[in-house]
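User: Sequence in, structure out. Go.
Assistant: Echoing your sequence, followed by the structure tokens.
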Amino acid sequence: MAGVLLLAGCATAAPEPTPFRPAVQLFVPATPTVPSPTATPLLVRSPTPADAIAQPADAASVALSAVAVEVPVAEPSAPPSPVAMIAVVAEPTPLPAPTQPEARPKAGLEWVNVRRRPGLNAEIVAKMLAGGFVRVVGRNAAGDWFAVQYDESDTNTLGYVSLEVADVVGDVAQLPVMEPVAEPTLTPIPIEIPAPDAPLAKVDSGGAGDAAVASVAAAPPAAVYSSLAGCPTSSGNSYELVPREGGPADRPDRQHGDLNLALRSYGRAAESAGLVDYNGPTDGQAPQLSGLFIPSRFGAPTNTYRVNIWRFESGSCGGEPHGCRGPVDDKWPVTLLGLAASAGEPIAMPSRDPIIYPNAQALVLFADETRITLGYTRQDTIAYGYAVYIENVCVDPILLALYRAQVGGDGYRVTNQLPGLRNGQVLGTAVGGEIIVGVRDTASWLDPRSRKDWWQR
């Protein structure tokens, strides 16, 4: 038996090598000596880590070793020949660290907070659960907080995690220093809101029974602050306040997982964006998503998404009083639908015929610069009736100011009123080429692609 070593990837002649003897265990059965048969060379390549994991094709860093073994091929009448059993062991190659640094909770922690800016007093915008990770895109100057993208579906969702509770894996030396912009000071907007005990004017309820209490119209101010570049800072629109029924929301609006969709977050789904047909009954009074556009039209679907569950129980969230984000809500294959739009295009309230108050079909339950949550009852909750969530929309600055006037600095309601909207009324403008919409019925998420429910007309 002859042993030959073949070296791959050598570019220049090398000195005469020292004879190489591979690690060979030879097992020869007790057989008579016979003439050597004609041998056929058989090339056996040593396995490398590249066989299991795709690696860059870098000839300078990949060394292949091969052993050519003469394996006898016996003549039909020849007795059994010795068989060589070669044990070739490849040295394991450590997997490289991820090229993009990642952050994950330290061992033993169920979750860690992602905050809007460095500091333990900063607003919590997301939770990072044990076993998960987020992409690290920067760091603060001190190097003790790292900027992370906490929602893969939106590159603008940046937050900060502390090195005291999170481990960062990967090369962080080249990360840029990203200090958040200081919070701007909002200019107060004078909006006349009557005291809760002050009597309001009576108006004709249109035959619906006793006279109803009139809503309050806010005169548009000359200019309104907007922190998002590209969104309007003034508006000539006007909106009315509607008295809500029942108690106020039981959590601060920004920390309420049923009101602020940014807390739950969402990710891309693999399902088609086209409309689908489901069996079952149809509600002829369901909100119609075609009403988002002026004039009303079918919005070309672009992408599909799925929201995450929100856990309200403090005990399941490490003591966090307002709850925490859970796994993907998989009851339906799609729970949010992207619709094509033009940047700056007016976006209106999804239409629904039943009125909840004179000149109003929906209530604004939550509003921020680029998202809004609507309820189709006068209850300050999504637990009753329909609710619609709209993302990637510059909320009209007058409407946003009117909503914020009903909320205190701690996020709790300070009046018994919220802004109302009517069919066809503009609530804002599209941020870019896609708006995202979701629908719930009595707190349950539903598939917004359903033709028979949300696209009847």
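User: And one key feature?
Assistant: Residues 1-34, 39-71, 81-90, 183-229 have pLDDT under 50 and may be disordered.
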